[in-house]
Amino acid sequence: MKKQEIPQDPSALNNVTKEVAYAVDDAGNYTTDLSTGWSVKAEALDHAWQDIEKRVADARAKIERKEASPLLYFMEKKLMDIKILSAYTGFWGITIKRHLRYGPFKKLNQKRLEKYAEVFDISVDELKNPF
Amino acid sequence: MKLDFEHIQTAHCENGVSVSLLKHAGVHQMTEPLAFGIGSGLFYIILSVVKVNNAPLISFRTMPGKIFQRTCQSLGVAVVRKKFVSKESAQRALDERLQQGLPAACQVGVYYLTYFPKEYRFHFNAHNLIVIGKEGDNYLISDPVMEGLHTLSSYELERVRFAKGPLAPRGQLYYPGTISKPVTDDQIKAAIIKGIKRNVRDMLNIPGFFAGVSGIQHTGKKIKTWKSKLGDDKARSYLAQLVRMQEEIGTGGGGFRFIYGAFLQQSHAYHPVDELLDLSVQFTKAGDRWRDAAIQAAGIYKGRLQSQADYNVMGDMLIEIAAMEKKAFTELKAVAKQL
Q1: What is the ipTM of this complex?
Q2: Domains of chain A
Q3: For the whole model, what pTM was predicted?
Q4: A22: helix, coil or strand?
C-alpha cells in the first residue's frame, strides 16, 4: 500500500482516535500515517452488529412464544455465549442451558437471579420482565 | 502521580506495549516493526471448531503475550509476568510498581473498556495497555492503539483486568526486568535472525492444514464451499468476521504484512543484504492482496456479490496469497542462513 492510498473513510473510531497504518512512500521506504478508518472494515463491523441485533430479536420472539427464558435475551444482548456467561456467573454450562428454558427459569431462586442480574448490569425485576 | 513516560501510538497493541516498555527501560533502538519481527508476530491460524462470535476462530498474529516475551528474551531482557487470584492483590501489585516510578502492562478484556467506542466492545480478552500513573482513584492509561492518554477508575481497571471467558487475563501484569547493561546493536542483529527463523518455522513448518501458509490455503478452499454448505446468511457472517479479524484495529492481518515489510527494511540497516529489501516488497504485495481480498469479501457480505463464482474468486485470492507468502518465507529462510 502506498502512503497516499491509506484510506480515510468515516468509522466508529471518529472523534475517538485515528489509527496508525504502515505504507510505503514514493521512494519505496516504509513509513506510517494516521487513518480515520476504512469503509470495508466499517461495513464488516456493521455486519457483525446486524447479526447481533438479529439474534436479540430472535431471542425476544422465542421468549414471547415461551420457548426460551429471558436469560437468552440478555445473553445475546450482552454478546455472550454459554461459555462466557458460565465464566462470569460461576454456574456450570449445563445449568445455564437449563435456565435458558422458560419453565426452569421461572423456578430460579432469588440468589441465582441476583447473580445473573449482577453480571448483566440490570435489576432482578428487569431480568424477569425484560419487555 | 504521573510517570515520565513517552506515549507511543502503534498499529498493534502488543507491539506497542513491547516498544514503549523496552524504550522506557533503555532499549533505544526499539521500533514497532523490530518488536513485531523479533517477536515473530506474523502468523495465520484457523480453528473451525472453535467459535468466536459464532464464526470460526481466525487469527493473523501469534499467541497473545508471545511478541513481548520473545522480543525481551531475544535481547536478554527478563520478563516479569504475574497473574492473580484476588482483585485486591492485583491492584496492590500494580500500585507498588507505580510507586517505584515504573510502568506496567496489563492484559485486559475490551468489553468493559470504557474509553473504547461501543461498536468495538466485544468479549475479546487479549488487549494490552500500559498503566503509567495514578491520580486519586484514577489510573492513567497509555493504550498503544489510541492517539492520546486515557484514564480508568480503579473499578473500571479491575473490571477489564478480571474480564472472563476465553483468554481471561486473570489480572495479568507484566513488564521487562531491570536491564543491567545496555542492549547492543550486535544483540539486535542476533535477535533479528532468531525472529526471522522462528517466523519462517511458524508459517511453513507447522504440521496440519490449519496454521501458517497451509492454513491460508485451507481457508481459501473452505470459502468456496461456504455458500452451499452454510447458506448465504452464515457465509456472509463468516466473511465479515474474517475481514474483522484481518483488518480491525489492533489486529490488522493485511496490516501485519506491511509491518513485516517494514521490519525487513529496518533489518537491512543491521544486516545489509539486499535480498531483505526485495523480500520486503514481496510482503507489501501480499499485504495488498489481503486488502483486495477484503474488498471482495465486503462485496459479498454487503450483498452486492451473490453468486458461487464470487465465492470462488474470494477463495482463489486466499490460495494465491498462500502461494505468495510460501514463496516469500521460503526465500527468507535461505536469506536467514546467510545473515
Answers
A1: 0.93
A2: 3-37 (no CATH), 57-128 (1.10.260)
A3: 0.94
A4: strand
